[in-house]
Amino acid sequence: MAEALRIGIAGLGTVGASAMRVLAGKAAELTRQCGRDLVVTAVSARDRSRDRGIELGAAEWFDDPVDMARTADIDVFVELIGGDEGPAHACVKAALEAGRHVVTANKALLAKHGVALAEIAESKGVLLNYEAAVAGGIPIIKTMREAMAGNTVSRVFGILNGTCNYILTRMEAEGLSFDECLKDAQRLGYAEADPTFDIEGHDTAHKLAILTSLAFGCRISADDIYMEGISNISQADIQAAGELGYRIKLLGVAQQTESGIEQRVHPTMVPTASVIAQVHGVTNAVAVETDILGELLLSGPGAGGNATASAVVGDIADIAKSRPGFQHGPVFGRPARELNPYRKARMRSHEGGYFIRLTVHDRVGVFAAVAKRMADNEISLESIVQRAPKSMNGTKKTVILVTHATTEAAVRKAVEGVTKDGHLVDKPQVIRIERAD
Amino acid sequence: MAEALRIGIAGLGTVGASAMRVLAGKAAELTRQCGRDLVVTAVSARDRSRDRGIELGAAEWFDDPVDMARTADIDVFVELIGGDEGPAHACVKAALEAGRHVVTANKALLAKHGVALAEIAESKGVLLNYEAAVAGGIPIIKTMREAMAGNTVSRVFGILNGTCNYILTRMEAEGLSFDECLKDAQRLGYAEADPTFDIEGHDTAHKLAILTSLAFGCRISADDIYMEGISNISQADIQAAGELGYRIKLLGVAQQTESGIEQRVHPTMVPTASVIAQVHGVTNAVAVETDILGELLLSGPGAGGNATASAVVGDIADIAKSRPGFQHGPVFGRPARELNPYRKARMRSHEGGYFIRLTVHDRVGVFAAVAKRMADNEISLESIVQRAPKSMNGTKKTVILVTHATTEAAVRKAVEGVTKDGHLVDKPQVIRIERAD
Known about the structure:
Two copies of one chain form a homodimer.
Chain A: E1 5-10, H1 14-25, H2 27-34, E2 38-44, E3 60-62, H3 65-71, E4 76-79, H4 86-97, E5 101-104, H5 107-124, E6 128-129, H6 140-147, E7 153-159, H7 162-174, H8 178-187, H9 196-199, H10 202-216, E8 226-227, H11 235-243, E9 246-257, E10 260-271, E11 283-290, E12 295-301, H12 305-321, E13 351-361, H13 366-376, E14 381-387, E15 396-403, E16 406-407, H14 408-420, E17 429-433
Parallel strand pairs in A: 1-2, 1-4, 2-3, 4-5, 5-6, 8-10, 10-17
Antiparallel strand pairs in A: 7-9, 7-11, 9-10, 11-12, 13-15, 13-16, 13-17, 14-15
Helix pairs in contact in A: 1-12, 3-4, 4-5, 5-10, 7-8, 13-14
Domain ACT (chains A, B): 355-437
Enzyme class (chains A, B): oxidoreductase
Pfam families (chains A, B): ACT, Homoserine_dh, NAD_binding_3
């Protein structure tokens, strides 16, 4: 049997502890699968004395992960610290420069420094695996990086944040408000005390940026992502969506268009009968459309210690099955130096259907004025519903429009026009509709 | 750059021609991804003169695929001939024995000879890749063999035959009979002139046998699969399923139970709100449940030249990225010689919910007799519906039972009892219910 693979783990939080437990508990089967033992020989975390419910065994302790990356007796450095700068960045860079394979679950780090780190990995002939960084346990990186060789991707989209999907699922199922669901998510540990990063779409954007690079062979550009969160989604939107045959999901979407690549994160209406619409709660899902394979969808747990640890262990096993001197495919599908520059499509050029919900004064001529603004901007309507719910006391009414494919620019102009007309009681709500099977 | 990977393709039908087109059309991108050129240097098919709409270029022609496997100047032998014996078996065996990597789309061959072929591959240190053999373009082999390292699988199930799913989808959507839908499927090329292999579950069983080995680390045992096809599914079943919140799918299911491994292929009721219930038409889907990752579902095109070719090219690319002397993981997850013997669970021990539809004489006491037979066999009922549709002219009625979890043995005994009681007008219909999220 080949020599044991020596593993160093930096960061012993939920995921790190889970990974340790899996590596120990499934040691015999992993050895059978990989043809060699997988042994944790070094660990590093902030607090040595904390009880994590795991055996550190004979693993050497390092207070400093960068020191571990440089000097420990390891073949693979596993980074589970988190954060796009500081020790996480420093130790991954140090490990790659020292010629060690790296496994990381750090989406923020890759979204910011992924290409530079890939260049180091490729020049050193080592692997940089990051399955756990996107959609937790779902093997979307392996699928796009390996299984889809030869495919040209036209669109990749997905539910990439469990917190948001949990909130939207409960809002729909139980008729609760956004704030009530967020509080429950916080109580259950699905949302942070400061939930901004999740609910405003930043987390989804980091993951999307990585998928975009894999999809289109371009450099990662997380700063160029159009972003809208879910905090302004109301019961009125969710109910109207349901009546129209849609469900609202926070999607990350990357799409190749004539004017460049669209990267956008926003609440999206998907057809209720589509597969992605059935992805409930904290579950994630990613769909990829290509010229040869067609459309593929993967769904599964997007977070949690065990699911994330599963992806980390899969990445380590891939390294264990490789042999010294072996060089696997490039980190982002094609060599980092050959990644195309990112060419951004303007959001105003986005084409698609739109849901527009307007709360207007209940007076003569409003409906006609709204219809005219749409027509003036050459927006063709699939449906238009006008309602005067009792709760509005006869002074206001709701107008809900669903457009055929049009442009973002046209919709913005039309809605600006309606606003100027002075009929609106409330801020207009605009939600993009996404095609999905 | 490394030397070109030399590829020999045996079988130039739909999939072979598609693979040739992808390898030629995406040559530059594949070279970028793999770090070397991928060149088809040899081909073999039955008829050299046939126009396949592809350029054979400088590839050497072989009339005999076994001859090509042994003597051609190739690194990878791609078998796209089909069939579990004859030339397909002979040439794959010859190629492996000659120390060449093999890529195959042949589920029948692997279901029968997979373990023996894996032993040869592993002893020669070459790869045997077969992503295209199960669920076409869906990367389920890569997912189970690589991404799920360290996971213990409890159940794998899926829609593995596009023909059956197409028929069931149309029956439900359009209220057509099985025979009408089958005829349309044949006209559209989704079903063979002799459709037995698809509609009676044999094709699903071959694919399931491979997934079972990957899931449970056991030897392949396709002959031990319990099998029921979809030809006796009627509109009455589909409509009753819909009313009860279920949809009927032909599933292949493999499950670890206390008494051994269950492998079964049969029409199955899955909850309408589950993800797998939204998989329509010729699309396939596979779900895997494990201890660490949780539940993962993949859906996508399960057949067709391009989707299958995508999987074949992915397999070839994986070989191209490997280097001489490199040994990847074992063919079926663990080394062929260490695969466990297959321990079969008795179908009578299967536990689950059941849908039972009885057509009975419309007379006093029938309902009570049916209920008594269920109670006598300790079957607890979730729902029981009695109906006398007009079409039955007042002489017959329908009794539909949905049971809580019980055993196959109990259900068979109860249904035998009801049959003996002499109340049945027609053959009883029994459809298993499968838990799915």
